[in-house]
Predict the 3D structure of the following.
Amino acid sequence: MNDISSKVLKGDPRAIARLITLAEDNNPIATKAMKKLHPHTGHAHVIGITGVMGSGKSTLISELTRIYRKKGKTVGILAIDPTSPFSGGALLGDRIRMMELAMDEGVFIRSLGTRGMLGGLASAVYDVVEIFDASGKDIIFVETVGVGQAEVDVIKIADTTLVIIVPGLGDSIQTLKAGIMEIADIYAVNKADRAGVNQTVAEVQSLVEITCSDKERKTPILETIAKEKKGIVELVDEIDKHKKLLEKTKKLEPHRRKRYQAELIEIIRKRLMNFVFDESTFKEKVEPLIDKIANKKLDPYTAAEEILSRILK
Amino acid sequence: MFDKNDLEKIKKEKQKWTKDCFNKAIKNHPERLNKFENLSGIEIKNLYAPDDIEKLNYINKSGFSGNYPFLRGVYPTMYRGRLWTMRQFSGFGSAEETNERYKYLLEHGETGLSVAFDYPTLYGYDTDDEWSRGEFGKCGVAISSLQDMEILFGGIPIDKVTTSMTINGPAAIVWGFYIAMAENRGISKKVIGGTIQNDILKEYIAQKSFIFPPEPSMRLIVDTFEYGSKHVPRWNTISISGYHIREAGSTAVQELAFTLGDGIEYVKWAIKRGLDIDSFAPRLSYFFNAHNDFFEEIAKYRAARRIWAREMKKLGAKKERSLLMRFHTQTAGCSLTAQQPEINIVRVTLQALAAVLGGTQSLHTNSMDEALALPSEKAVRIALRTQQVIAEESGVTNTIDPLGGSYYIEWLTDKMEEETYKYFDRVEKFGGVIPAIEKGFFQREIAEASYKYQKEIDENKRTFIGVNKYKMEEHIDIPILKMDEKGEHRQINRLKKLRKNRNNQKVEKNLNNLRKAAKGEENLMPYILSCVHSYATLGETCEILREVFGEYKEPAIY
Amino acid sequence: MAHKIRVLIAKPGLDGHDRGAKIVARALRDAGMEVIYTGLHQTANMIVEAAIQEDVDVIGLSLLSGAHMTLFIDVSDLLKKKEIDDILIVGGGIIPEEDVPKLKKAGISGVFGPGTPCEEIIDFIKKNVKR
């Protein structure tokens, strides 16, 4: 398996796919490979796409990919769907919405379940981005779950964050209040042929006025009709412009540092959690403590200190 | 319908009976279930009595057979005058093989023909198209050109027997083949009778053999209404279908509501085009499923007739023939088992009986081997005999709507109507049928219902004999239909020859004219007929329309 | 972390009957698996490409139109050609008993006809997954 990283560097789809699985499974082989791949990353433009269900994320990504492919760029798409908290299973339903890209060799689509992670991303997302990057993809789309207002983690990983809104999906004020609107580097008002588009654009504009009043760059707002392929070329231009701006103003580096920090924290968190709650001994270790907490013989803080002190010994 | 005093007495007696008699009985011997529900989830009571239908106004809400609102039947005499048409859906392999099966069925007493096409034909692909790989003739007959249609009906008197064709996406073209075939035989368009299914809305919802997006598909359908009403007056240009919606897993109420909703939508589109409702409405027909819950199905058909009559009146129809709903029924394929397949004969019998007691105009009974393969000769013969026994031995056809007045049936008919209107309201909120389709409303309802049903079977909460109860290890020993292995080769050669020997300049000219017309607003049937007459193939003609109309991609719902 | 079983449910060819495929997809998800449903009208190339990118453990093929001998075997042949031998292939739909041995020989390890309880499919996958 030592040559899995060299296969990934060559762009071998099976190696890419297998390494992603190993990373998701926290397999030590993946760790070894990721170490080898990291020096080869940094080239790809990572674009995060977020927005509520029904906003047309997958269709928009399909159309953006088509344009990038015409420009000769290779594309990796990471589509995230929620894992059921009850069964631990997931219906990964974004790929089916991107079927026209199915046979394009220059496009790699991978579906991930959140596997319990909140924030709209999956735990393995940093690994996948690095793997895509190292394998030579020019553009990486990260499509978040996007079911609500808490899905802001995408800014940790993306160079450019695209927030998709749809007129008349209701609750536009709600969305504006929440953090999701502040994370946008670009807004796309999709399904712009629907009633209420002007009002929606106006609402977003007023928010932009407020949040960007002291900034150099006013977040651009574009209208698209992804199903009819309208407004896509302009959106691609805007995305490219954003990356060029980051490079020119030397803001790309500090931005990426945030990603690496988030990735580092996530790796440490995972390792700590696995160490403490190693699945095979979890029940033995923790269940008795929980019994005591439930019977008020112990409080959660003391219980936590007990567990941690055992580890830190 | 009942005297007020009598009703009061009945209600009092019922209370007494419940307290003193029924409740006592269930104390010692509880009922088999906590709740009795039919397949639509409607709770069914222990006993129905006059007070359950006290609101039924016989004159306004029931009436007599052949009179508005047609609850009791669409014709005055119903089966006393004429039995339903025994029309067995069939087709497989090449036109030659299916032609033989049609002759066999006619010989054995079937009274109408019904064509099943293979998947490539359903999608508008010729047999030699790359998408046709492996699919030739597997689930129906392959028809790629007028020549194939001529072979399919060789030696069959199409001026004396009617033909139903289950075709949707390319329906207009395949209808064109049939019309052209008749014309080539010197049989006038005014004389031929039959049906094309031609119901695209249910394709988006359930059967999924759509080709083009909704708007151009609806345009094509209204073109057929218009052409039919002017030139082919004995033809039913649509069979608005609930069968497939039910097969996809919907409940009976959903089948009723979604199908009628589709029907109303077609009428609205035709009216928008400027057609006079009474000019095409008499040739709209319906197609329902006959599933397991015997009385629910009967109530469903009755409710359907009454709702349709009322809605058509609302839409402005004045002629009586525009208000009456004629329908074909097929027994439920999805209720049949691969295990102990002979038992399917019993299931089909009950289902067929429900359709007859529900007043169907035409009936297909499934064969016992449906869950294994296409019907063998023996199996389809038994299926046909099932209808004949019901028609000629059981006596149920001696009177019209024999279950009319049953407290249970009338109550259930009303209840299903009530539930249907609730669905109509929900669809309205989406902005109509097509927006609801695009938002996946129907598809989601169906996916939920089918998942619930499967879970009930898996958890043994619903009995499926042979599958989760009374199972047995057995070697299934019934003859499976074998098709002619040389059929595909023959078909492909025939196509090659056809393309060589026809006047290709004429074909190209006609296809170009079709392309031009498709981009405009003219009725496309004359252009399609020109293509057909010059022996343009199904695939070639469909390709033109694909080019102009585009292809439909469905929203991902599960 | 325990490996989650990843399953691709595909409908090859023109068959549009997706009731069963969708039900099985949901049942597998309820059993803790990650399921990717490809939708209708898939070629063997599309199915195998998706299986590679998603690195699935199982490919489930659903077909009710009778074309299974060609279309299922197309998929298993293509996997063989690409030297992929660690994916479990299962199939369902309307498949006569007599075709099952040939399908199994071609690499379709489990054939689940009408009436198969979802539990049976889930158990088979859990027992026979190759990784």
In short: The CA atoms of residues 95 and 289 of chain A lie 43 Å apart. DSSP finds twelve helices and eight strands in chain A. Chain A has a mean pLDDT of 87. The radius of gyration of chain A is 21 Å.
